[in-house]
Amino acid sequence: MKHIKLVALLALIIGCSPQEHLEVKAIDILPPGGDVDSVTAYVDIQGAGIARLDWKHRAYGLDSLVQTEYWYVDSSDVYTSTLSVTDGWYWLSIYDEDSALLATSDVVFCGTGSQLPPIAKFYAEPTEGLIPLGVEFHDQSLNDPTSRLWKFGDGESSEGAWHYYEEPGNYDVTLIVSNITGTDTLTKENYIHAQLPPPPVADFYAEPTEGKGQFSVYFYDQSLNDPTFWYWDFGDGYTSTEHNPYSHSYSYAADSMLPYWNDTAFTIMLIVTNPGGTDTMVKENYIHYEPGDPPIANFCADPTQGQVPLYVYFSDLSTYWEGTPWDREWYVGEGEPEIGSGGLWHIYYSPGIYTVRLIANDRWGKDTLTKKDYITVTE
Q: Where are the domains of the chain?
């Protein structure tokens, strides 16, 4: 066997022209396909002249020319051509110098996949439910597809098989599958039914529902039909979007002096929402409170008499509801009142009898205690 590859231009330059009609007696391609890296064509050709050999390839429904050779045939013999291959169908065609087709080989399949085009087939679960609806799609396509494209009917597409439907509606689903041999498409119309949930029904309770002074309340949502959003109004100027506000404090705000502490009860409102709608529950005067007790002023001094200069320490013995008094105002019988956060030291430099007064303050009020002629200072 001999294998001669020359371009037609070279043959013309050296003055060669066909002496007789070319005739292809046989074409064998070995190995005949399969999992191989290359194939070789054995062509039994008779006559003399220039022959063109075209290797062609088909994959994914597309034909392409992958290699061209020119042979100068000067005697009858078996000529060979080797081609590197990938997955797909291969064949070759032989033409004379006038591009007239002389012969076409059998088609061979190279690769390990199916030699048949795919047949699209699938199912999904679930096919109906409440939004947001999560659906898993199962590919059952035949003939070993190597690529898949899902179109879910809501404008979204993916190579994956999970999808969430966020809006209600009936959706067409399309699966496009391909392999080296071809492509197939399957569409199931109105296959997925995504539905709105029933609207929520607002309900809640709280513990405790009454207290004195500063206290915390726990709120519990009991709404029906799976709300996805909550809005609480606690009636004191504060709100929350938590599902269950586990500790809301009803307390006097000293910096803002909120007027709600003139009330004796708070109205609670809960608004719940899901994709199906909104509902509201209002419980009038649901949280009851009473203010803390005002302080009870009391104090003592040590010593209460002596000579000038007399050093006296005044101790605050007042009773405070929450144990957190504000500043005390001390009037020690001379000069301006003295403000302190606890007890008070004072020095008397002048003899006399002094009346002492304490004004005790906290968030719940104030109280005054006056002790007349309490301090005696002598020369």
A: 8-110, 122-195, 204-290, 299-378
CATH number of 299-378: 2.60.40.10
The count of other CB atoms within 10 Å of the CB of residue 312 is 21
With vertex at residue 41, the alpha carbon angle to CA 40 and CA 43, rounded to the nearest 5 degrees, is 150
The CATH number fitting domain 8-110, selected from 2.60.40.770, 1.20.1440.230, 3.40.630.10, 2.60.40.10: 2.60.40.770
Tell me how far CA of residue 223 lies from CA of 206, 243, 278, 286, in angstroms.
Answer: 13, 10, 11, 17
Which two three-digit tokens encode residue 51? 């022959």
Q: How far is CA 280 from CA 98, 208, 233, 241, 270, in A?
A: 88, 22, 11, 14, 6
User: Is the CB of residue 286 less than 8 Å from the CB of residue 208?
Assistant: no
For residue 201 the two structure tokens come to 């029904």
pTM for this structure?
0.53
CA dist 270 to 239, 281, 346, Å?
Answer: 10, 5, 56
Q: State the pLDDT at residue 15.
A: 43
Confidence at 289, pLDDT banded by 50, 70, 90 = confident
The mean predicted confidence, pLDDT, of the chain is 88
Whose tokens are 């309770």? That residue is 205
In this structure, are residues 264 and 288 in contact, taking their beta carbons and an 8 Å threshold?
Answer: yes
